[in-house]
Amino acid sequence: MGKVLLSGDVGSEWATLHARIEKLHGSAHGPFDFVLCAGRCDVESNSISSWPLPVYVLADHEDNHTSTNLHVVSTNTVQDVCGLSIAFLADSNAVESFRNTVDKQLIDILVTQDYPQGFDHLIASEQVPSSIQRKGLKTVAEAAQAALPRYHIAGTHGLFYQRLPYVTNQGNNRRLTRFIGLGQVGLSTDKDKKWMHALNLDIVKPDAASVDIPPGTTQNPYESSKRQLEEASHQARKRPHTGLSAEKAQQLMQQSGNKPRHSFYDSQQHAFLPNRQECWFCLSTPTVETHLIVSIGNEAYLAIPKGAIVPDHALIIPIQHTASMQNIGAAAWKEVNQFKAALKKFYAAQGKAMIVMDRNVSTLGAAHCHLQIVPVPESILPSVAGVFYDEGTKHNVDFRELDPDEDVADAEYLLVEFPDEENKDNQRRLLHTVKGKHYMQFGRDVAATLLNAPRRGNWKYCVVPKEEEEGMTQAFKKEFAPYDFTLELE
């Protein structure tokens, strides 16, 4: 574990920086291992003779300073600092040499003076301060693309800004990067101009291949639109046969990237993002996991989730990007219900009933509505409602049962549907209207509890290698084929 202090532009505020480092280093938050300073500094104005821990700053020329523990970096280089790999871009005009320097290395932190051009791509404009929108240098973006660091820090613009994390696909591996902009040392005590930030970083082995993808993660903003379209087209040609031609699949991919219908969630939380590159369920985005897709219709598709609770755990996902199921069109609803009816027959043949969960709750990223379908033995149907009510009291999830013909209001909600134990043709619906914070894994947790497998409530414990996921998908597809209406589509 490396404990690192990050600082913005020092300028000539060496005494201010020194005082702050000493205070934090000796506090309950310390001790720290080293300090990284992004942005610009005037090395010649430094009169501090000694620093309490190593401090690294960027400069555009060599300086014969005599300050103990101050490291002036004036060339593009990668250094091992306390077991962490730190890349310094001191000369943004020498990107080619930098690219050669970082080639095939796992970079923990990239330190640059300026922002990368395009950092605000794939982010709603409301989430980026106007003073830094469309700022940054193309060469810094090229350096970030070459390094693919775990963290990228920069200064120059006087603000504290944390971008949503972004992911880069490298074959079967993914690299997750967090970009942080820092303010100018000593300029202000305002939170939006914060100039020092602390990190606790685990030391990652070079062969580490997998990362957790947090909510709100976007695609790499520096990849060109042309490359993204080429990848999407390539994925369409590779997509397994589901009763649709390659041309039809391509059409559906384009459809999924269109602007969604208006919904409460979109109007309150997120602006429309072109091409939906940050969405995990849009067929047009490179992040969609095509190997998990079981069947594709004209308006919706069926897939298994990553980290399934049971092998026949399923998702029904409208192709059109819409935040709430209450706002999808009539044609999409018709096909969603066709998938539900097919799954009902599929599960019934195995002596199972299905719990359907529909959640419309704000998240950091762009929400794409879907139904989560968990099959359970028919024998436990009498206890389903009671378990949802009981677990709800533990997590401030208060349910009320809807009347058969009652509509769901266009607001944030969790809706649970399951067969009546006395008449399986009748559906019971429990609705929780979300007000304030909501435990996002609640529905999955309850389903796992009903199946007497509470540990599987956390999807991370259920993730298996891609090869095993592919096998699960093919097995599901084979068993579901007699009920799959999409095989009849032309």
From TrEMBL:
Gene3D superfamilies: HIT-like
Region of interest called Disordered, as start-end residue ranges on this chain: 209-263
Protein name: HIT domain-containing protein
Biased composition (Basic and acidic residues): 224-234
Native source species: Aphanomyces euteiches
GO CC, alphabetical: post-mRNA release spliceosomal complex
TM regions (residue ranges): none
Signal peptide from the UniProt entry: none
Classification via PANTHER family: CWF19, CELL CYCLE CONTROL PROTEIN, CWF19-LIKE PROTEIN 1
A Gene Ontology molecular function term of the record: RNA lariat debranching enzyme activator activity
Domain Cwf19-like C-terminal: from-to ranges: 276-384
GO terms under biological process: mRNA splicing, via spliceosome
Domain named Cwf19-like protein C-terminal: residues: 410-486
